[in-house]
Design goal:
Immunoglobulin-like, mainly beta, immunoglobulin domain, Ig_I-set, 6-stranded antiparallel sheet, 2 domains
Length: 220
């Protein structure tokens, strides 16, 4: 499955950025993203709310009389008139860009006096799946005094790997090394105390997966 990640960059906010919270926002193609303003819900309708993509593409223009939704967004958005927030669903690569909202209150003023902006950057990711830990041993069975490695694998775009042993964060001893961005855990000289349950957690901004391996150390 193909994924796309949206990042909210606070560095591009105008002075009116108080209407929108800091990011990042992470979402995937086919899923949804919520643009939530920081405004307190109001019983008095806003005079107008405009959401745009890349300035020129109108997503929705809402007044106290009518809502006009852009044709590409029919059935894909939910607008929340009491706060000006917006939910966008069924994301595609065409949704990449800069989102801006302009809100005019019932008294004709803007809540913060400027137009805040969501700046969305994109990275191509794949959802993680099929995590596994593979054993490589210099003997048929892991035995004291031999060299053994555990390799943490998964399908998808791997950002981080973290190892645990017996439900606690793995602490490397003098006979252990991690290599290939934490993909391979090597026991240079296997010891009886290395026996236990090892867990590898794999993650990226849109998904996570994990696998465990019970290491039994045999006597030579």
């Amino acid at each position: 499955m193909f994924y796309v990640v949206f990042y909210l960059s606070p560095a591009v906010f105008t002075e009116g950025a108080g209407v929108l919270p800091d990011g990042p926002l992470n979402a995937a193609v086919g899923e949804k993203v919520m643009f939530t303003t920081t405004l307190t819900p109001t019983e008095t309708p806003f005079l107008s709310v405009n959401w745009n993509l890349n300035i020129s593409k109108n997503i929705i223009t809402s007044t106290n009389l009518v809502n006009n939704t852009g044709p590409e967004y029919e059935g894909r958005i939910t607008f929340f008139p009491s706060t000006g927030s917006l939910e966008l669903r069924s994301l595609t690569l065409d949704d990449i860009g800069e989102y801006s909202v302009s809100i005019v209150q019932a008294d004709g003023t803007n809540p913060v006096g400027h137009k805040p902006v969501f700046h969305l950057l994109v990275s191509n990711l794949y959802k993680l799946s099929g995590a596994s830990i593979l054993l490589k041993s210099s003997t048929n069975l892991p035995a004291e005094g031999t060299s053994v490695s555990l390799t943490c694998e998964a399908s998808g775009s791997v950002f981080t790997r973290n190892w645990m042993k017996d439900d606690s964060k793995l602490t490397l001893t003098d006979n252990m090394t991690l290599s290939d961005n934490n993909r391979v855990l090597t026991f240079n000289i296997l010891k009886k105390k290395d026996e236990g349950e090892y867990f590898c957690n794999i993650s990226n901004p849109v998904s996570s997966d994990g696998a465990k391996y019970v290491l039994i150390v045999n006597c030579k």
